[in-house]
Task: inverse folding
């Protein structure tokens, strides 16, 4: 069994739909297809929702009409069988009509619950799943839409371990019901009610998460995430022309890269598959012959010590100094509790005997944090900073790597404000001025990835 997820860009046009069909038909074993909404549709749904809340009924009608026309046009250009096309278009019309009535009710109420927002967001995936099922069937590959919007029982109060284990079992049963009929399930990336809301609890990567849950539940041989890039690279290719595809990477290293700026995929969204030891591949819909990147639970004895270098801008450094820290237990806990109280995540932490420096990306509640900490410590703020992260699988096996990093940055005239080396042995993270962030990535990439020193 192979689970294959296609993102919004893969579903975004008639041409890309044809590419998806070729990829699906190239595999002759059992497979499950998971799809996102067509590119831009989720944003369109949010815009229609906001228009309804604002009482702009004419804008809602115009937006929904354009959405229906876009899907119907793609179907008419991709499906030749008259019955399949008629059934597909009829589904589009029923779904959009239902959404129109739902938005009208929201307009009259003047409010939007989390559950209602989730119902609206589900429409995009429902339309694209029905679209691809019709296109595949028309191309001689029998397929059936698997609508997961109401798959999850609403008895769960929180999205904990029990919730996701139950979800995996439900998905396995639903998949097998369709595959037993010798059809390929085309599942909606949206998978029903999640306590706290799909977008708020899982985020925009929920369709990847859905695919990972299906992969774990079906004990799949692999999970493929098809997108518009050929895998995870050694650096951002828009800034580093010599960036290379990483053949394989551990889930831990991929998590570090994602956290500190890499945008290909967030490992949290594929965690169920990794936990179940299902290998994950990042592949390019538009360059299907490219090898892509494989993400494994663990990579033993990697051929490449260095993996990638990335950066995250828009960072603020908060320096907290107090002699009360000296020889006192619990002081750091008190500091972190204040950040937790004001829901402000911390990225990098550096400490000494009487001071601690942390970086934050969200500074919206920084004034409240400073006000609470000021009575017991001296606070200073450094804005317009950036985090640079050098990731490697077993980075500490290479002697003197920290010295090489500092020497390379020193020769480039880049000063380091703060450094943190994680206990996981896979990264060196440091803070520089935001204006030097791209230059830092460039010189480090040249040092470790372009000079044969990996």
Result:
């Amino acid at each position: 069994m192979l689970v294959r997820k296609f993102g919004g860009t893969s579903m975004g046009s008639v041409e890309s739909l044809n590419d998806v069909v070729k990829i699906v038909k190239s595999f002759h074993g059992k497979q499950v297809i998971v799809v996102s909404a067509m590119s831009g549709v989720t944003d369109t749904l949010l815009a229609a929702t906001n228009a309804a809340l604002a009482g702009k009924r004419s804008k809602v009608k115009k937006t929904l009409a354009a959405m229906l026309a876009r899907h119907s046009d793609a179907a008419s250009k991709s499906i030749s069988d008259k019955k399949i096309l008629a059934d597909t278009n009829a589904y589009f019309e029923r779904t959009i009509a239902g959404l129109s009535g739902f938005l009208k009710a929201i307009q009259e109420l003047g409010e939007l619950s989390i559950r209602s927002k989730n119902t609206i967001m589900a429409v995009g995936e429902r339309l694209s799943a029905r679209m691809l099922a019709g296109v595949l069937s028309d191309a001689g590959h029998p397929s059936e839409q698997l609508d997961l919007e109401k798959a999850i029982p609403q008895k769960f109060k929180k999205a904990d371990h029990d919730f996701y284990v139950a979800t995996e079992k439900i998905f396995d049963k639903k998949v097998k019901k369709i595959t037993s009929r010798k059809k390929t399930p085309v599942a909606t990336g949206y998978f029903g009610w999640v306590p706290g809301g799909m977008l708020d609890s899982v985020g925009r990567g929920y369709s990847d998460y859905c695919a990972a849950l299906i992969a774990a539940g079906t004990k799949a041989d692999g999970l493929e995430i098809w997108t518009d890039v050929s895998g995870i690279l050694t650096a951002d290719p828009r800034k580093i022309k010599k960036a290379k595809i990483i053949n394989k990477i551990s889930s831990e290293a991929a998590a570090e890269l994602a956290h500190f700026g890499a945008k290909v995929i967030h490992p949290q969204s594929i965690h169920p598959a990794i936990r179940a030891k299902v290998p994950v591949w990042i592949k390019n819909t538009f360059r299907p012959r490219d090898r892509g990147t494989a993400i494994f639970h663990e990579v033993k004895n990697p051929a490449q010590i260095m993996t990638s270098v990335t950066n995250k801008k828009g960072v603020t450094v908060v320096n907290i100094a107090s002699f009360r820290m000296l020889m006192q237990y619990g002081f750091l806990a008190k500091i972190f509790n204040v950040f937790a109280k004001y829901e402000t995540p911390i990225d990098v932490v550096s400490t000494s005997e009487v001071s601690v420096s942390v970086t934050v990306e969200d500074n919206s509640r920084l004034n409240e944090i400073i006000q609470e900490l000021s009575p017991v410590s001296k606070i200073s703020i450094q804005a317009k900073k950036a985090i640079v992260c050098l990731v490697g699988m077993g980075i500490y096996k290479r002697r003197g790597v920290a010295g090489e990093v500092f020497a390379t940055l020193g020769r480039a005239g880049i000063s380091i404000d703060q450094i943190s080396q994680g206990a996981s042995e896979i990264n060196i993270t440091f803070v520089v001025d935001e204006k030097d962030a791209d230059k830092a990535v460039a010189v480090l990439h040249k040092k470790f990835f372009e000079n044969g020193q990996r």
Remarks:
- The mean pLDDT is 88.
- DSSP finds 14 helices and 14 strands in the chain.
